[in-house]
Design a protein that fits this description.
Helix content: 40-55%
Radius of gyration: 29 Å
Number of helices: 26
Strand content: 5-15%
Distance between the termini: 70 Å
């Protein structure tokens, strides 16, 4: 009888324990759900059906935190519950602040840059934090509420048996996998949340839009630290593209049923067709190389190259042969920085020479990504994998890889001297390692310049202290990464303080048409304007202006601009995709009339365009961009796989499709096939870029094709090893410097607290 009572009490204990367990689960479920909805509303201003797939994972996440709660009887739980809610809330606080600064969410792969980002952007962070107090308080509301209830209300925070905690952990795992299966309810195609969950190439912002912020973070942690989902056979996805669907042909049955319209008799005009040669390197027989490839990944990459359509020489081939090239990646440059009154030099350059009317800057933020695409015609890795264990960003990672198609390499092969300049530290994003690897023989960073301010530094001062390095050369190629256009565009920005009064004077009465943020953006870019004006004057004085080509575009959209700032510059509302519409200047003073090109293009298309214009030998199949003058498919793809071309605009964030053609002429299946094939095509280009770095494909290709001698192979291996060693040493120095800063900050805080205590005692 006593045994039965004991068993009954035991079971009763577990049954009673279900009540506090359910309460904790409900608290965590509601907290995570509310914070996810808050983040989504703040980021996109609305909630759509595709945003709600995060709900499949909230039960697992809430159950996990439930397993960490309720270990004690009362007081202990009153302490642990606010702590657990604080852990959840502080994660969303970090994401919120990061989004307000950078315009995107914080990815796990960016954690390696955490210390540097805080140090370099601290001056901007203080103002962001102050302006975010109300929002941060809302995010911390569950923590505050739990503390208040625990103190004021005489509510018992009950616990539940330890064995139930083990069950809850197992239940959390089961719910996670159930959530993955639940995603299938929304489909499994390229536009589905299920595809986002498994994709090798999806970026953090796109993933969070479908899976939620916290779920995306957990998935990225699993991929980055544990390699979950990262398969070595990823290159197999590159060859499965239905290219026949990439060309839209009207349905014959539909066309036949359309009444003929009266029209004038068409006269056939006989035009003599000029046959142009393709941009290929005969050294590369990719199919033969694939048969003898050392491994499956290299073989699949060779087969991918073999399937790529080369671009062809055209009427603009060699237009700038033997000219000088100045190639400029401008910080935060947008087409609206070109203003006839404030920046007349930039305005003139952007409306003359070669004008790319449908140029789109592919990147929302992160300088190194846009710079890498602009400099190499390869897509940077912005996925959850992002080559874990290496420096953040494909550009820094490329330093230890073989990169034979850097513009510096291709120009120096002709005997041209090459130079690269940046008015910030060369160690940041490891430019002091990656730039020489692209063939830049002479590099100069801020520590070799005399700059009046450090952040952001003056582009004019950089130009003044660099142009004499090369202007007397017979031929030269100079690369610049500018800095003055960096945000935030407020009173704490030194370029704003330097130029804002001049901007207002230049605009005159028109200044009233812009808000403060827009005027500040002009002030930052006025420094770039002064640098360009000085550059043109010096080139003209040296009689080098007419035979020098200047290429200038932005690294990314100016993400510091708020919606109000954007609308002020534009003069009205601007759509999500249209904000990426920018300018890429290709200017030569000898061009009397502007050459307009309406083909859709983006960052990766500029290198192949320049190679064609300068008639520099290359194999176009090895580049992910397309010469804008070629008779090829042209598209502007964004970092999140949204894209625009002559037929359609596809927004991957909203899954919205805007057709520019008469869709009545096509069957629905053909339109769907076109859209899906284009998404496959773009994703394969992206994955190919990642694999080129990941597997050092260029090095394997040049070796297998017999283009490198044994001595050159040994030298490259030694160079790469030295880069990795140098980088590891730099990482150690930065980690030590960060540790010292933290210790000094802690000591200062302790000293201040002690001083306050002594003052109170006195």
């Amino acid at each position: 009888m006593a045994v039965d009572n004991m068993e009954e009490k035991k079971y009763k204990k577990y049954i009673i324990g279900l009540i506090p367990m359910a309460i904790y689960f409900g608290i965590f479920f509601l907290t995570i759900t509310a914070l996810e909805l808050f983040m989504r509303i703040y980021i996109s201003g609305k909630i759509t059906g595709m945003n709600l797939f995060f709900l499949f994972f909230v039960p697992a996440e809430a159950m996990f935190f439930t397993a960490l709660a309720g270990f004690f009887k009362n007081i202990g739980n009153k302490i642990t519950l606010p702590i657990l809610l604080f852990v959840i809330s502080i994660y969303y606080c970090v994401q919120f602040v990061y989004f307000r600064i950078f315009g995107s969410l914080f990815s796990v792969s960016m954690m390696g840059m955490g210390g540097q980002a805080v140090g370099n952007f601290f001056w901007a962070m203080e103002e962001i934090l102050i302006s975010s107090i109300i929002f941060l308080t809302l995010i911390l509301a569950p923590v505050i509420a739990s503390i208040v209830v625990g103190i004021i209300k005489k509510i018992r925070f009950a616990g539940y048996p330890v064995l139930m905690h083990l069950f809850v952990i197992l239940l959390s795992v089961a719910l996670w996998f159930a959530g993955i299966q639940g995603l299938k309810l929304g489909g499994t195609d390229k536009q589905s949340a299920y595809h986002v969950f498994h994709s090798l190439s999806v970026d953090t912002d796109s993933a969070a839009g479908s899976l939620g912020t916290l779920t995306t973070f957990l998935v990225e942690c699993g991929a980055y630290y544990l390699g979950i989902g990262n398969t070595e056979s990823s290159t197999e996805e590159l060859v499965e593209i239905d290219k026949s669907a990439l060309e839209l042909i009207p349905d014959e049955e539909i066309v036949e049923n359309i009444p003929d319209e009266e029209s004038e008799e068409e006269v056939e005009e006989v035009v003599e067709e000029i046959v142009y040669e393709p941009w290929i390197d005969d050294s590369f027989d990719f199919e033969a190389l694939a048969e003898n490839a050392a491994d499956a990944n290299t073989k699949n990459m060779y087969l991918f190259f073999a399937q790529q359509e080369p671009t062809y020489k055209n009427e603009y081939t060699g237009m700038f042969e033997d000219y000088n090239l100045i190639y400029i990646c401008a910080e935060g440059f947008w087409k609206y920085a070109c203003n006839e009154k404030v920046t007349p030099t930039l305005y003139n350059m952007s409306n003359n020479g070669i004008v790319l009317t449908n140029y789109y800057n592919s990147f929302l933020n992160t300088t190194t990504n846009g710079e890498f695409a602009f400099a190499t015609s390869l897509w940077p890795d912005v996925s959850r994998y992002a080559m874990s264990g290496t420096d953040v960003g494909s550009f820094p990672q490329s330093a230890s890889k073989y990169m034979p198609y850097g513009l510096g390499d291709l120009f120096s092969a002709d005997g041209t001297n090459t130079y690269a300049f940046h008015n910030y530290y060369g160690t940041y994003y490891r430019r002091y390692l990656s730039w020489p690897n692209l063939g830049y023989q002479d590099t100069k960073f801020s520590d070799e310049m005399k700059l009046s301010v450090v952040w952001p530094a003056s582009d004019l001062e950089m130009m003044e202290q660099s142009i004499d390095d090369y202007i007397e050369e017979d031929t030269f190629h100079a690369y610049y990464m500018t800095f003055s256009g960096h945000g935030p565009y407020n009173g704490s920005n030194r370029m704003v303080n330097r130029n804002i009064n001049e901007v207002k004077e230049l605009l005159g009465d028109d200044a009233a048409n812009y808000n403060a943020e827009a005027l500040n953006y002009f002030a930052c870019n006025l420094e770039l304007e002064k640098a360009m004006k000085y550059l043109l004057e010096r080139l003209e004085e040296a009689d080098k202006l007419d035979n020098t080509v200047i290429v200038l575009t932005g690294d990314h959209y100016p993400y510091y601009l708020s919606a109000q700032g954007r609308e002020s510059l534009v003069g009205g509302e601007i759509s999500e995709l249209e904000q990426y519409h920018s300018a890429c200047i290709i200017y030569n003073s000898a061009i009397e009339e502007p050459i307009y090109n309406d083909n859709y293009c983006c960052n990766v298309d500029i290198v192949p365009t320049i190679l064609n214009l300068f008639n520099l030998p290359h194999d176009s199949r090895l580049l992910m961009g397309t010469d804008v003058f070629s008779n090829s498919m042209h598209t502007a793809m964004l970092y999140n796989k949204s894209f625009l071309n002559d037929n359609v605009e596809y927004n991957s964030s909203t899954k919205e499709t805007y057709w520019k053609i008469n869709t009545d002429l096509y069957c629905e299946e053909a339109l769907d096939a076109y859209l899906n094939s284009y998404m496959d095509f773009n994703e394969s280009k992206y994955l190919a870029s990642i694999n080129i770095l990941k597997y050092n494909v260029y090095f394997s290709l040049w070796k297998d094709a017999g283009l490198l001698t044994d001595e050159e192979i040994a030298a490259e291996n030694q160079r790469a090893a030295k880069v990795l060693q140098t980088n590891a040493e730099q990482n150690a120095r930065e980690a030590e410097a960060q540790r010292i800063r933290e210790e000094e900050a802690a000591a200062a805080a302790e000293a201040e607290a002690q001083q306050q205590q002594e003052e109170q005692q006195n």
